[in-house]
Amino acid sequence: MKTFTYEKATSAEAAVADTAATTRFIAGGTNLLDLMKLQVETPEKLVDISRLPLAEIEDMDDGGLRIGALVPNSDLAADSRVIERYEVLSRALLAGASGQLRNKATTGGNLLQRTRCYYFYDTSTPCNKRERGTGCSAIGGFNRILAVLGTSDQCIATHPSDMAVAMRALDATIVTLKHDGDKRRLSIHDFYRLPGDTPDIETVLEPGELITHVELPAPPQGARQLYSKVRDRASYAFALVSVAGVVAVEDGKIASAALAFGGLGPMPWRDAAVEAALVGKVPSDDGFAAAADALLKGAQGFGSNDFKIPLARRTLIACLRDLTGE
Amino acid sequence: MKFTINGRSYEAEADIRTSVLDLLREHVGLTGSKKGCDHGQCGACTVLINGRRVNSCLTLAVMHQDDEITTIEGLGTPDDLHPLQAAFVAHDGYQCGYCTPGQICSAVGMLDEAKKGWPSHVSADLEHSDLSDAEISERMSGNICRCAAYPNIVDAIREVAGRAPAGRDVAGADA
């Protein structure tokens, strides 16, 4: 690990004072320290935000929930309001990592997790995400765990979070504090960037900008919620494919559908065309197949991850049966 | 830097990069916590910080100067074993023993989480889950045992959790 200077932030305002590209916030640190040990991340300064008063979960007037960025994943998963109103989020959190990691990892940090692409971690190989312009070793390499949607010829990495997939299905808003003291409210749908020619830039956050809260709107009435994760082990493994679904059926027809996907793309994936193929229809396997067609229309495999395309189709159809069945 | 470990105060001069695990092993001589992968994948380094189980390899010592750190050395002594330590002995919940301190610290934290009513990935009902063998296995999945003593680890934890053994299909698997 390269050495660094360490500063304990006394307030959120103090934390955002430093906009240097070589400064990192640290809270749970479960991903950042791992990357620092491998020298994938080499910050010159760490700003410790772990003791800022951002660890509360509060009810909002509109029936939604406001989650402090420092709420640990385990506390969020076990919160009675999350279990009651946002089961998909609780399920997604519990499907991720281990008990020890969930106790440390925070809500804000989970959103900003880096990919688990093997080549991103291996500093002896080229990787455009780690070092822009060096090339992508995953295209033509071992890419079993990598993306089939939203890729570019520069990067095929996946976003590893389960939590963020559920939050995308729940239309979360990410609240931030900027260097100049302004607060921003960013829809999670606008928060992540596709890799394009700059796969090293993963979100729209500006230098020094700090995530302070995540807000969830009230969940749709009468909707069934589900998180389904397919992985190589029964526990403690990243998703090959995951589906977060929030679907309501009224009078025998699908009244609303929110579907987000993990393991498929460079960001927690959501595609309005999938939902458009379902809403207003009587639930049927033909309709579910049409939704899968919409999801996978532009999907591209890279050899060892080709299997994800039929796997995503089958997982989505199985989820839709569960979400709409008797 | 100043620390509270197993109820005792310690002072250590350590590099800013020092993890809690390296602090324990290299600076204060508490070598019970083990370094397996050093990347949060194996759980051998599990300790309790303010009563919560965490991977001590993945957190900086400098960030925990105001916290209570509990290691395997703080749970029991050879003459006065913690109930989980005694149960691991009784059920032969190890072979080489390298993962055992992490398994036991993790189990202490896990049983506390279960007592608080925290659900797990395998809980059918997120509001009510009993500590079945499947629950114990899922909740302990962050602790790898390469000797594969898992059945006996589950037996040991089940005993301390106060549950009767579940029926086993495999003859002779029970300790």
Automatic annotation (TrEMBL), chain A:
Signal peptide: none annotated. It holds the Pfam family FAD_binding_5. The keyword Phosphoprotein does not apply. PROSITE patterns: FAD_PCMH. GO terms for molecular function: FAD binding; oxidoreductase activity. Keywords: FAD, Flavoprotein. It comes from the Bacteria. It comes from Sphingomonas oligophenolica. InterPro entries: CO_DH_flav_C (IPR005107), CO_DH_flav_C_dom_sf (IPR036683), Diverse_Substr_Oxidored (IPR051312), FAD-bd_PCMH (IPR016166), FAD-bd_PCMH-like_sf (IPR036318), FAD-bd_PCMH_sub1 (IPR016167), FAD-bd_PCMH_sub2 (IPR016169), Mopterin_DH_FAD-bd (IPR002346). This is Xanthine dehydrogenase family protein subunit M. Residues 1-221 form the FAD-binding PCMH-type domain.
UniProtKB/TrEMBL annotation, chain B:
GO terms for cellular component: periplasmic space. It holds the Pfam family Fer2_2. The keyword Oxidoreductase applies. It comes from the Bacteria. PROSITE patterns: 2FE2S_FER_1 (PS00197), 2FE2S_FER_2 (PS51085). CDD domains: fer2. GO terms for molecular function: 2 iron, 2 sulfur cluster binding; metal ion binding; oxidoreductase activity, acting on the aldehyde or oxo group of donors. Residues 1-75 form the 2Fe-2S ferredoxin-type domain. Keywords: 2Fe-2S, Iron, Iron-sulfur, Metal-binding, Oxidoreductase. Gene3D superfamilies: 3.10.20.30, [2Fe-2S]-binding domain. This is (2Fe-2S)-binding protein. It comes from Sphingomonas oligophenolica. The lineage of its organism: Bacteria, Pseudomonadati, Pseudomonadota, Alphaproteobacteria, Sphingomonadales.
